[in-house]
Write a structure and sequence with these properties.
Blueprint (H helix, E strand, L loop, with lengths): L8 E10 L7 E8 L4 E6 L5 H9 L8 E9 L11 E4 L12 H11 L7 H12 L14 H14 L4 E5 L7 H18 L2 E5 L3 H4 L5 E5 L5 E5 L1 H15 L20 E10 L8 E9 L3 E6 L5 H8 L11 E2 L16 H7 E4 L12 H11 L4 H14 L15 H13 L5 E5 L7 H16 L3 E5 L3 H7 L2 E5 L6
Parallel strand pairs: 3-7, 3-8, 5-6, 6-7, 12-16, 12-17, 14-15, 15-16
Antiparallel strand pairs: 1-2, 1-4, 8-9, 10-11, 10-13
Length: about 475
């Protein structure tokens, strides 16, 4: 796999403020990344890591989108004039998928760069193998799981053979095997091409030994640290951990909850699940969700974890068998959640989707958190008390009047969890609840979920995060990939 000449990136006092935002997303950043360097870009959630990557890639937009300060150059030119040199993998894989089939989507970037048509099929196959995505070339992109979509967009970037590869949390929704495969594919790609590499990732231990340098953004502008990984973590480790950075070998001091022993709040026998009219992804499942405990759902990408979660939550129908709630949770139409009204679901089963944006409805964080309480008819004082408490607890209070869609990935995830907690449902279903979280955000979320369990609520968490399994305890459902997704 060949590549264009490795790129040089230079920032001098660079910053960006989104239109309508009181505070800049990132400010006063200065560094030079030499051709062929491998940089791990770290910082607390909201420090501006994704914004900086978008700036380097030249996709932030014009003056209508925001205001920039300082200079940011790729090989001495503006990033907007150097887009053919850069491959960007976005934090949200859906935002990077353009076409309807796997082969067409991977080929899209090559076609736009004018790569000869005879060369593109070979690049597509090579990139898919490098990214570890083993699916038919004609597979619809909408039929892929979240983890498979991440591999797809990585393959699209690799197929262009860029001189600069920018990866924004490329392993966020991958199973442990997938994490190692993608990490290995990125290493192979940069070894073979010599491309300059910049990776934003909270899974620091996965990437640190591949990197020649660590750059840490400060939440209030500038840099917290910059240098060789070993030196940065040795000299600044405790301070970085306090700032929210995942420092290798820095432990988490949270108690592990005991295993579940209560009766079932949700159960199903011989359950078959499917997301749509396609073949079922799992069949013959016997499922039990204990009351007042956490149930974690684990398994490989494409095994049907999200589909099972949505089925248990009453949002998609069972293909065969029935999900039944406990008698004291039954709605007017009985015990089957799929038959409940939206209002009945609001107080009984709340769901946090894998993609936070799919559940945002309003223009500010404050209004978003008030949606559930208002639907339940709570008065202003009670609603404000719940909203204020959640904003403070999850470090979102300074952004109370911001648009939810302008938040960082980690902030969006915390908001999406908070919107469900605001209505105090008896059962809380969460799909990848700790996605995109820095160390502080992770601790806040997991400790908050522990408190919800202590209050008697039942939690179902789809996760690849072993820390969630360890600290929430409870019951585990592990899905094997029985039928191709």
């Amino acid at each position: 796999m060949s590549a264009a000449r490795p790129a040089r990136v230079q920032a001098t006092g660079w910053g960006w403020r989104y239109a309508g935002r009181r505070l800049p997303a990132v400010s006063d950043v200065s560094f030079t990344i030499e051709p062929g360097e491998r940089v791990l870009l770290l910082g607390a959630s909201g420090a501006g890591k994704s914004t900086l990557l978008a700036g380097i890639a030249g996709v932030l937009g014009d003056a209508d989108e925001g205001v920039r300060t300082g200079t940011l150059l790729i090989d001495g030119a503006a990033p907007e004039s150097s887009r053919g040199r850069t491959g960007l993998v976005l934090q949200d894989p859906d935002a990077g998928i353009v076409l309807s089939t796997v082969a067409d989507d991977v080929a899209f970037g090559c076609e736009n760069l004018g790569v000869p048509a005879s060369e593109i099929p070979g690049r597509v196959s090579e990139a898919l193998a490098a990214a570890g995505l083993d699916v038919p070339l004609g597979r619809p992109t909408k039929a892929l799981s979240g983890g498979q979509k991440q591999r797809l967009v990585l393959a699209g970037a690799l197929a262009m053979r860029p001189g600069l590869l920018l990866l924004d949390e490329p392993t966020a929704n991958l199973d442990p095997v997938g994490v190692q495969e993608v990490r290995a594919s990125v290493e192979r790609a940069v070894d073979e091409t010599g491309a300059t590499l910049v990776v934003v990732e909270h899974r620091t231990p996965v990437w640190v030994d591949l990197m020649t340098r660590v750059i840490v953004l400060a939440a209030d502008g500038g840099l917290l640290a910059d240098g060789a990984p070993a030196r940065v973590f040795a000299e600044h480790g405790p301070a970085l951990a306090d700032a929210g950075v995942w420092v290798p070998d820095a432990g988490i001091e949270l108690p592990a909850l005991p295993d579940a022993t209560g009766d079932a709040v949700l159960s199903a026998s011989e359950l078959t699940i499917a997301r749509d009219a396609r073949s079922p992804v799992q069949s013959g499942l016997d499922v039990r969700v204990p009351r007042g405990a956490a149930t974690v759902v684990t398994g490989a990408n494409g095994a049907g974890k999200s589909t099972l979660a949505l089925t248990l939550a009453g949002l998609i129908p069972e293909r065969d068998g029935e999900v039944l709630a406990a008698e004291d949770l039954a709605g007017r139409r009985g015990r089957r959640p799929f038959r409940w009204s939206s209002r009945e679901l609001l107080t009984r089963i709340g769901t946090v989707f894998q993609e936070p944006e799919h559940q945002f409805l309003t223009q500010t964080l404050r209004d978003e958190l008030a949606v559930g309480p208002k639907a339940l008819g709570w008065d202003r004082a009670r609603t404000d008390a719940v909203v204020d408490a959640l904003l403070e607890r999850l470090d979102l209070a300074p952004l109370a009047l911001a648009n939810p869609f302008t938040l960082s990935g980690g902030q969006k995830r915390r908001l999406s969890v908070a919107t469900v907690l605001a209505a105090s449902p008896a059962v809380i279903v969460l799909d990848e609840p700790t996605f995109g979280q820095d160390r502080k955000g992770w601790i806040s979320l997991v400790s908050l979920l522990q408190e919800e369990i202590a209050r008697g609520r039942s939690i179902i968490a789809v996760t690849h995060d072993e820390g969630v399994t360890q600290h929430l305890g409870g019951h585990r459902i592990e899905l094997e990939r029985r039928v191709a997704a």
